[in-house]
Amino acid sequence: MPELPQELRRQCTQHLASIAVYGPGSPVEEGWLGRFLAAVEPDDRANWASDIGFIMRQLDEDATQDLWVRWLSAYWSLRNEGIPLPPGPDGLEKMIDWSPEVAPVFPEPVDRIRESTLPTISYSRRLYTRLEQRGYAARYPKAVASLLQHLLPNATQPFLACQPIAAMFPALVQSTGVPRQMLNRICDELARLGCQNAGELRRLLD
Fold this sequence. Notes:
The chain is mostly helical. The protein has helices spanning about 5-20, 25-30, 30-40, 40-55, 60-80, 90-95, 105-115, 125-135, 135-140, 140-150, 160-175, 180-190, 200-205.
């Protein structure tokens, strides 16, 4: 596929993403997904992951849960193990963006993210905005706090997600399942990233 024109490569990744989501079987068990990923360039793999995310945003919660159980969870575990190869920085960022779309089992993709080897990349602001707008901090406070503790040390400046994280923070503070030590680490990282509200958030822990 690398020898194909860019436009045809994009059409191919979109088509295969649609088959993976809407097809009846598991592209992991059928084997074609691994062969495809091994044969293409890193930007094709990242585009495919982006296409999967775009489709997931059109699905309801039952459909995304079925997708996760049917093959997406196993796929992520295999990629973490380097099968057929580990995700590159761009592809991993697109995979991380899948996590808010799997609402009924959100702690499970958080576990997959925590098992991933994270590069230093600037995670998209929309990830944190979607988590905040959909009330994930109240619904899954421990998973959200674990995700923040894992991602923020690898985030870079300029960091544009200070506000949505601050909006989620009171729900994390109110949860009895989130250790104060974890919340203090999140505040430390927000301060490092230049978030002016980090001190205010830390005072909520007093």
